[in-house]
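ASSEMBLY PREDICTION REQUEST
Request ID: AP-0331
Submitted by: J.K., bench scientist
Number of chains: two
Total residues: 868
Priority: normal
Notes: Please return the full assembly, not individual chains.
Input sequences:
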Amino acid sequence: MTALITGLRTCDVRFPTSRELDGSDAMNPDPDYSAAYAVIETDADDGLEGHGFAFTIGRGNDVQVAAIRALEPFVVGRQLGEVLDDLGSVWRELVHDSQLRWLGPEKGVAHMAIGAVINALWDLKAKRAGKPLWQLLAELSPEQIVDLVDFRYLTDALTREEALDILRGAEPGRAERTAELLRDGYPAYTTSPGWLGYSDEKLRRLCREAVDRGFPLLKLKVGADLDDDVRRMRIAREEVGPDVRIAVDANQRWDVSTAISWICELAPFGLWWVEEPTSPDDVLGHATIASAVAPVRVATGEHVANRVVFKQFLQAKALSFLQLDAARVAGVNENLAILLLAAKFGVPVCPHAGGVGLCELVQHLAMFDFVAVSGSTDGRVVEYVDHLHEHFVDPVVIRDGHYQAPRRPGFSAQLRPEALREHSYPDGPVWAGG
Amino acid sequence: MTALITGLRTCDVRFPTSRELDGSDAMNPDPDYSAAYAVIETDADDGLEGHGFAFTIGRGNDVQVAAIRALEPFVVGRQLGEVLDDLGSVWRELVHDSQLRWLGPEKGVAHMAIGAVINALWDLKAKRAGKPLWQLLAELSPEQIVDLVDFRYLTDALTREEALDILRGAEPGRAERTAELLRDGYPAYTTSPGWLGYSDEKLRRLCREAVDRGFPLLKLKVGADLDDDVRRMRIAREEVGPDVRIAVDANQRWDVSTAISWICELAPFGLWWVEEPTSPDDVLGHATIASAVAPVRVATGEHVANRVVFKQFLQAKALSFLQLDAARVAGVNENLAILLLAAKFGVPVCPHAGGVGLCELVQHLAMFDFVAVSGSTDGRVVEYVDHLHEHFVDPVVIRDGHYQAPRRPGFSAQLRPEALREHSYPDGPVWAGG
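STATUS: Completed
Returned structure:
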């Protein structure tokens, strides 16, 4: 019997994080971290499922679930082996469907839905292979990796041959770096101290704790009030001393000229990077800001819609740190393209995480990058926020400021059954009782 | 009694256009033109409703409807007069909602849903004022118009003061241009001859008919096969003679280098513009193409996600004709911003139309631009495709290659009740019987 994909189960899961002001920033004062959750079911006798999700911050998570449901005809009823053996083709079918692509193209709700399904398929593929996703990817040949990437719209910046060269160049050290990763983990930084909703005292305490826990970089949210930001920067710098790096994150709050003047006010406290200074669509605006605020460096990516926009950020020298997100673009395949673009341009990738489950996902991509693409952790850190990990079957493990390499098979994407049940919206006990 | 908005009714309406290959191009071989349709209901005693829609091409129209439904809490229950008197604030509330904006931000399904609701509110406002929308807008003061525009992320290219200057500069001739418009209409061009699914004989006949009907420009779809395109260009040029302009539309089919070489093959036949040569997100790619294929000019816009991306196309000199779409961005307010940006950069706006209802909507924006913004029809034409107009209460009227100015109150967005009923998906007779 050939196994088939028999179902695409979805769930609207929301965590009431706005009740605690965790995650508050200048643009997102009251997020309820949410997952439009997708489960791939099969009739294989291994009992395995593929789990994936799109991340949202509350309202509209139902629309995101509807967009995932619209993909059911593309996967359900198909032969499992054929699908998992050629995820490059599956990605193209989903992204380039002639009718669905009108809803983006390649952006927003429709694109994130594809990301959830693609990531769920990768979770299942890795589970069936008995490997964590980072390792499964890092053991593919350069040819297998580029077959997963769609080079449409990229060839003026990165061709298939150039991508192969990058991957072949990184092949010799794979085993050594895998051992290093399993021993030391991958560097992390923390955003936990810096939310706008926190008091100065809490900021001070959390900064000290971050240093004690070994994080080499911490990040503050800024952009609501300049005087507050100057005061909070001063507090943070006092607490961490001159050697720990401090980044700031404006969450798209500013226009170009405001960004430049605001950043210049904070620069004397020592800024490692300034993140999302303006609209994530504004490549040219970021380039103007980057050139004006140098040597402060610009970082962005969590809201960058797709690989074509990242290509332009790199071409225009509009960012110095590329912050890919595991659930914003169309899943693993598109992030492979983005990692290869970053490598081509020599820009370090420092993935966005936090929310719910984003740390769990993105660690795999960073670790794959280290082993098989960039071959380096220089200037590279993965964001870490200490929220909601307890709800996952295979939560991230941080030790001495490093993500420890996952060893369980899969993409670490799976929520515990009771977490799904309790936070189901609007009927789960967390919401129905509220 | 103060009137309230009492309901937001939605409908999934699809026309089976794929059965006839109308609308087939290199990226969209089999569209079913569809509307995610929104109706604003009130308890006012005038019996008026506001109609609007997002346009899609079939699959996923249900997701688009779900996104419109998610906006119900933002409008239903509110005082009608307050909403209609301050649509600038309503636009900001919808677009900048701190949770919903994660779904874009400002792009794709979520943004088009806002466009449908905003356009429905404008339809209702114009009906209550007893005026066609173009005229209602063209009679606003410059201050009232800029109050409708959100300048966030635009101020490095266009400030409120600069927009006011543009509008004040166009004030003196408003009455004269309104009279001209009511007398002559607004220039149109036709895409009807050029769909890829048509035979050479049909192309030949439709080209002749287009010239006979007075269109100064016609457009061919290209990008599937170069030899076919050369042959079809030759046929079209033979039929229309040297004076009628021919544009070509690749519907995003090419990478940058392919676009350049393909366009150079077609250029000897005389190209007025090349439309959508590559990804609509690729500002820098378009700029490279534009500079390489000059004097052939680049046009794009129907898939440009928002005003921030248009701003960059203008800054980068990546387009010579700006093809705004009435239902892709967040409705009338955002298109006011786009018209003002185009005026600032001196770029003619040649709106995208076709599909279902897009001609009906966009004529109002072009006519408003003529009367109150650019003050000119030089180099400007509105796309016209002769499909599906019979389903509208107030369909467009074309005479001597010109859109005749609508005189009925509203935004011409309203589908006939029987059209809604028959094409309702999946239960209407057109679909249930198929």
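REVIEWER COMMENTS: Chain A touches chain B through 60 residues (CB under 8 Å).
SIGN-OFF: pending second reviewer
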